[in-house]
Amino acid sequence: MVTGAGDGIGRVTAHTLAARGATVILLGRTVSKLESLYDEIHSSDAPEPGIVPMDLMNTSEDKINEMANAIGEQYGRLDGILHNASILGTRLPFANSDLNEWREVMQVNFMAPVMLTRLLLPLVERSNDASIVFTSSSVGNKPRAYWSAYAVSKYALEGLALLLADELENTSAIRINIVNPAATRTAMRAAAYPAEDPMTVKTAEELMPLYLYLLGNRHGGEHGELFDPRTWEPPKR
Ligand code: NDP
């Protein structure tokens, strides 16, 4: 499952996983984007993807349980979750920040991954080689002035990932890791740095060796680690 699959890094990851033979469940909020991605994947030789239209801002335990039941019936298990969907919010001094925006950003970027992971865990436990990847940010590892709820949501997300990694270390085969994709040419990056020339920023495609390594079956068993494409090198085999 890839959340936020309709655009940006999520879209490229969904394509890449499907091209490598994965049956990808595309979760996102804009149905037209999911449908065009579905058509692109389905018209290739890749396995038919699944679509889950879900606005993570307004989701609920009931809706996620309904989805989990449907996935269980159709696919039997989940081999991986990429928690990728996120909103940027407004960069502002804390004193000027809007409390409703705090709630929204924390819901999409943090509470939604909590809810999805908690309710999908039984399906992930049915896999014998599962991976859950949480997408953070440089400002999540070390919150930076004015990055407001976005920075704090990613900091909390890293906490969740490390908590889960510790809990599951000796009781489960599920690998839990964090990725900080770092500057990547997407709509979110353009919104955060409007004066930047996008051509100076790496593409989402350039992240794919790392994402495939973490989500695929040729990993090295890494667990509880933070990955950054600027320092990561594929292991020599
Ligand atoms: P984009 O804004 O390009 O894509 C984000 C995706 O998340 C979109 O498909 C969007 O849906 C989806 N999404 C947003 N809100 C919701 C919601 N309420 N419910 C369901 N889906 C939602 O972002 P990126 O691809 O750049 O970012 C991907 C991840 O990488 C994020 O977690 C981001 O924080 C992180 N990141 C990105 C960096 C970068 O430079 N790009 C740097 C560091 C971290 P829709 O298409 O419908 O809007």
- The rough form would be described as globular
Count of individual beta strands: 7
Which class of secondary structure composition applies to the elements?
Answer: alpha/beta
Number of domains: 1
Q: What's the story with the biggest beta sheet? A: 4 strands, parallel
Number of helices: 8
Low-confidence stretches are none
Strand content: 5-15%
DSSP helix fraction: 40-55%
The hetero compounds bound to this protein are: NADPH dihydro-nicotinamide-adenine-dinucleotide phosphate
CATH architecture group name: 3-Layer(aba) Sandwich
| Order of helical and strand elements | EHEHEHEHEHHEHHE
CATH level 1 name? Alpha Beta
The N- and C-terminal alpha carbons lie at a distance of: 28 Å
Give the strand order, joined by hyphens, for the main sheet. Answer: 4-5-6-7
Q: Could you name the CATH homologous superfamily? A: NAD(P)-binding Rossmann-like Domain
Average pLDDT figure? 97
Q: What is the third-level CATH name, the topology?
A: Rossmann fold
Please state the CA-atom Rg, rounded to the nearest Å. 17 Å
Can you offer a commentary on this structure?
- The protein is an alpha/beta fold and 237 residues long.
- It has a single domain (2-227), classed as NAD(P)-binding Rossmann-like Domain (Rossmann fold, 3-Layer(aba) Sandwich).
- Helices cover 44% and strands 11% of the residues.
- It contains eight helices and seven strands.
- The protein has helices at 8-19, 31-42, 61-75, 99-124, 138-141, 148-168, 187-192, 208-215, and strands at residues 2-3, 25-28, 50-53, 80-83, 131-135, 175-179, 225-227.
- The strands form two sheets. A four-stranded parallel β-sheet has the order 4-5-6-7, sandwiched between helices. The protein has a three-stranded parallel β-sheet with strand order 1-2-3, covered by helices on one side.
- The model has no long low-confidence stretch (mean pLDDT 97).
- The protein binds NADPH dihydro-nicotinamide-adenine-dinucleotide phosphate (NDP).
- NADPH dihydro-nicotinamide-adenine-dinucleotide phosphate is lined by residues 4, 6-10, 28-30, 33, 55-57, 84-87, 108, 135, 137, 181-184, 186-189.
- The site of NADPH dihydro-nicotinamide-adenine-dinucleotide phosphate (NDP) has 28 residues, from α1 and α7.
